[in-house]
Amino acid sequence: MKNENPAPTPRRRPDRPRRNSQAEAIAATSGPFTVGDTSYKQWLILGALFFVMTLLLMSFTLDTYTKSFQTALATIVAPAALVGIIWAFGLMTATFVTVALIFFLFTPYTHQLDEIKNLLLMSLPPVLLAAAAWKVDFSRFKLRRDGATILLGIFTLLTFVSFFVNMQFWLVGERVVWFQLACATFTVVFAWFMTSEMEMRRVMAFFVILCFFSAVLGLLFYAGHDFTGWMGDLMQKMNQSYPRNDPFWSPQALNLMETLSRSREMYSSILNSDFFAAFLVMTIWLPLCMFFVEEHAGYKVLALATFLLMLVCLAFTNSNDSYFAFGVLGTGTFVLLTWRHIREWMSRKLLITFLVGAVVLGVTLIILMIPTLDRGWDFKTEAYAGRQVLWGGGFWPWLYGMDHTAARLDFSSILFGTGPGGYRFYFPVFRSPIYFDTQINNVTTFGHNWYLDVLLEFGAFGLLAFMAFHIRVMVDSWRQIHSTANRAHMLYQIAIFTGLVSIAFQNFFSPNNRWAVCGVIYWALFGLSMGVKRLDDEPDSPEVAAMPVPLSTQRFRLVARYGLLVVAGLFCLRSIPQSKKYFEAARANGTGLIYMEYAEDRERKDLDGLPYYELARDSFEKAIKLNPSFGTSYYKLGHVYNTLAGYEEGPELFDKAIETYETLNRINPHYSEVHLNLGIMYSLKVSREQDPAKKLQLMGKAYEEIREAARQAWKPNIQWVAAALGTQLLQMTQVELSDRTLSEDKRAALETRVSELHTEILGYYRIIMEYEPKLQPLQQDRKKYLPQAQAKIVTLAAMGENTSDSIQLLQKMYMDDPSQTAALDTLLGLYDRSGQPEKKIEFLLDAIHASPLDVSLRKQIARVYYSQNRMDDFVRELRRILVLTPNDNEALADLMLVARQADNEAEAADYARRLSAAGGHPEAVTGWALYGAPSADNATTSITATDDATTILEY
């Protein structure tokens, strides 16, 4: 019989997880945020980290700490603290901290606001990679299963190969290598250390939280101008209660608040609206999928709020390629991959309602945006033209290297590229000379096309390796989406796959992956996809695990392990020390720019700017000492030296300016307008030389620099300077050519040089005359130089050199402006000297067609007709002249002579009467009025044509 009242079972105390079983404790929890049993060492490290971060934040906002202390915190203490985090909390937590710091920190003012991000990217990922290389389990490594990892290693190896093949730009190229390796570090960590279901959920939760705060900051900076302005006013009031030389808030912090209060862009802490849009396009699918994965209501609320806030931020970025990447590619991919699951989760009626509503909403938005799209069409057309310039400037150097004549292919650059960071050096070589009209700066770092950048910098091998890696990751992701039985794995893989598809399109138009935040997130997505895929990989069976590993596999694992350790060691030894100098140099350069701007402002107010120029000089010199490849500092320092030479009239400072520009041109060829500055400086130095031979040599150097500057940019002021220096060199060469003691070879060389200079000088004036820039300041320059250029063209043409070029220019001058009578006279004289009467007639006919009432042109063509024995045309033109001016004495006199020679006495008497009535003297006419004495053949020509006023319209 069953006992209806059984004795109560003794209650047992549940077992606690062991202190050394943190993974088990994590697995026993239900949420992704649980850290597990926190031991004393974790609390110790957490407290130390909090203290370090507090000092770091205070050092950048308060005026108490020195810049050296700030840099030491970021480059020494921060990596050491990261080691402590790895020891106490694990590699993944340290990675979270690193990503968050890179994402959210930015400095008040250095060279750019995001220099702190580059500093952290150079100093913290080396520690992560070293820890990953030490901890990674290569015994799990399978050649076939881990193909994506192998391809990533090959691509990384090829970046080093490209770097060593192109050693001429060592320092800049090395930093690009470390930047690429730092971004790939996050691929390695997420791919190899996301080893459990709960770890995956923890990682995804971190990225969703990152997205949430990025959206909140974006909206705050975009719409919270009143708040940031109020904060700035409050900080200034706080400073008023402190001594002026010892304020509470640093000038950088005040400058930051002022910058944020004036901002009208949606850029969050990424500080660029296009880059923020790229981040949103990559990650917006993670919170959406988290909403369907997580069961806890709090996570669902967080995911949904994050997704909606990110949508709002994306709408305000005004990034059209991001709109297309999200709205068409991203949404299409997401719906395609989730379609069969959507049908399972939703009723058919609800699904149809949603789709109809989405279509109506989309059509409505398009209709409402038509005016905006129409207004922006011209801008988008110009943006596309700018992309063509950027892409062409990157593609042709890949084929031809530095040879702008494109005479032969450069197989080294084709196979291995121009080296990491090579775009900035090679782009000006093939850049369109009208790049400035497409809103492209003098200094352009990247090609706004990730694939083109990889091709140019790492060559065909590098691009093939990257595309193989990219495709392998996408194929593995696609297979897992369609084969996995784990719903969370499938949805998160769909989110990652969709983000990679979206950004793959945007990478054709944006350099976002070449900047810190987007580079980290982009490569982290690859790691997330690889990590989620590894979670579904089945472990080896006991039989397979017990089988001996082939010797080739053992060797490969050994090489991979120690190779990764060596790379990580080099990364730590080279990148971390450079990061300190890099950041200090950026701060010094920023300080120099402030002093320089202040000095120029004082000069505009007729105040003494010398003390501030000296401070700017000291800052730029410090920046160059810390970072010998800092192009901006060299460029500005040369300007400061030249300005100080004007203040102090010291030749030493003038020579220092030249030396600075020469150094810049050596380490960073074609930087900004360095050729223009060097050419002008050399030409000014000519006046200080006494030796004619040295003066000619120095002027030759000046002209070579200016000629390159004029080739690279068709700005009117550069063309004018090039023509002026070319003219000076031409005069000096002609003086040397007058030396009768010259050898025949020397004389022939100088004569050839004179002819070349004539052609080149005419070319500069041609550009001023023919090219009409779009930018208002350049239009003003052209308006200033155009009349002078036209006068110079007439003068050069009269010298008789380069007849064909001169004729073309003079023709255009006169046709554009018929008041240019000097150009017309010179042009007609060139036709006569070169023996081109038919070309002369052809031009005059065109000119008469443009100005049919111009009698002087008709007289000119009548003279040519007479000289060519075309008497019928000669008479016809005289009659047309009389139609326009019935009392023209010259036409009447010549027609009277023609009639007499034709024995037409009646007509001759009529013309004589008309000539007398017009005030002429028929009896005094003994020769041709428009041309010289007639030939015998001309005298026998009779008049057979009659003309009226309508005949003038023939031309």
Secondary structure topology:
Elements: H1 22-27, H2 40-61, H3 67-89, H4 91-104, H5 115-123, H6 125-135, H7 147-165, H8 170-193, H9 197-223, H10 225-240, H11 251-262, H12 273-283, H13 285-293, H14 297-316, H15 320-345, H16 348-375, H17 377-400, H18 411-416, H19 423-430, H20 450-483, H21 487-506, H22 516-535, H23 542-546, H24 551-604, H25 610-626, H26 631-648, H27 651-667, H28 674-686, H29 692-712, H30 716-737, H31 744-770, H32 776-798, H33 803-816, H34 821-833, H35 837-850, H36 855-867, H37 871-884, H38 889-901, H39 905-917, H40 936-939
Helix pairs in contact: 2-3, 3-4, 3-24, 4-5, 4-6, 4-9, 5-24, 6-8, 6-24, 7-8, 7-20, 8-22, 9-10, 9-14, 10-11, 12-14, 12-15, 12-21, 12-22, 13-14, 13-21, 15-21, 17-19, 17-20, 20-21, 20-22, 21-22, 24-25, 24-26, 25-26, 26-27, 27-28, 28-29, 29-30, 30-31, 31-32, 31-33, 32-33, 32-34, 33-34, ...
